[in-house]
Amino acid sequence: MPWTSRDREIVDTLAAKVRVLSLAQVARGWWEPSQRREEHARTRLRLLGRAGLLDAYRVNVHPPLELRGPVIRWKPGEPDPDAEAAATQLRARWTEAARPTSVYTASPLAANLFGCSGGELPELTHRDHDLLLGEVFVAYLRSEPDAARRRWVGEAARPKAGYRVKDPDAFLVDDAGNTLRVIESGGKYDAGRVAEFHEHCAEHGLPYELW
Q: What superkingdom heads the lineage (predicted)?
């Protein structure tokens, strides 16, 4: 099928930037507000699925969180954040029950076309985490489209950091590939995970946002 620049951007996003997006996230990210934008998005995503570029699933996940900004925004030279306070905020926000939700991933074919390691549905315990990252990406797409389109590099598009090393979820990079900022979905991190993530970024001199 002939595909549009929007089609390519959606597939590229799922192959190289985030692992999974819900129907609602795709509609908010790439269609202008209207009563039928989810219907229009679903129709186009179905065509991309028939072309072998996307896989569709129906899964139980928590509703999207209302994001007003990162829980922690840090850069080298600033005091260490309060991991306990951040973890309390991260874990207290999941107040609604999981519900059936339409989600999409890049297909293995699309991952290969874009030279990435993605192309599969995240494990059950990672789905809320990864959909939250998708929500952050959509927020960037609406507020900082250049950063989302040109500078956001997802975990699947980078070499693995090493054995038993947790790769950050995404990086914003400059034109030379240097890291401007790390983007991390905080999911339901406890204080230990928050502290571990901060220590990794501090050790490597990486500014970050933890959402």
A: Bacteria
103 forms beta bridges with 22, 57
Those residues whose C-beta lies under 8 Å from the C-beta of residue 126, and which sit 6 or more positions away, are none
Average pLDDT over residues 196-201: 97
Across residues 202-211, what is the average pLDDT?
97
- Domain hosting residue 197, numbered range: 5-210
Q: How far apart are CA 85 and CA 48, in angstroms?
A: 43
End-to-end CA distance of the chain: 37
DSSP-based three-state secondary structure for 144: coil
Residue 164, Cβ neighbours under 10 Å: how many?
5
Is residue 22 within a helix (H) or strand (E), and if so which, with residue range?
A: strand 21-22
Backbone angles phi, psi at 73, to 5 degrees: -125, 120
Mutual angle of helices 23-30 and 127-143, in 10-degree steps: 10
Domains identified in the chain, total number: 1
Instruction: Summarize pLDDT for 93-135 with one digit per residue, the tens.
Output: 999 999 999 999 999 999 999 888 778 999 999 999 999 999 9
The rounded percent of the chain whose pLDDT value lies above 90 is 88
pLDDT tens digit string along 136-159? Answer: 999 999 999 999 999 999 998 877
Query: 3-state class of 193 per DSSP?
Result: helix
CA dihedral 147, 111, 41, 25 (to 10 degrees): -50
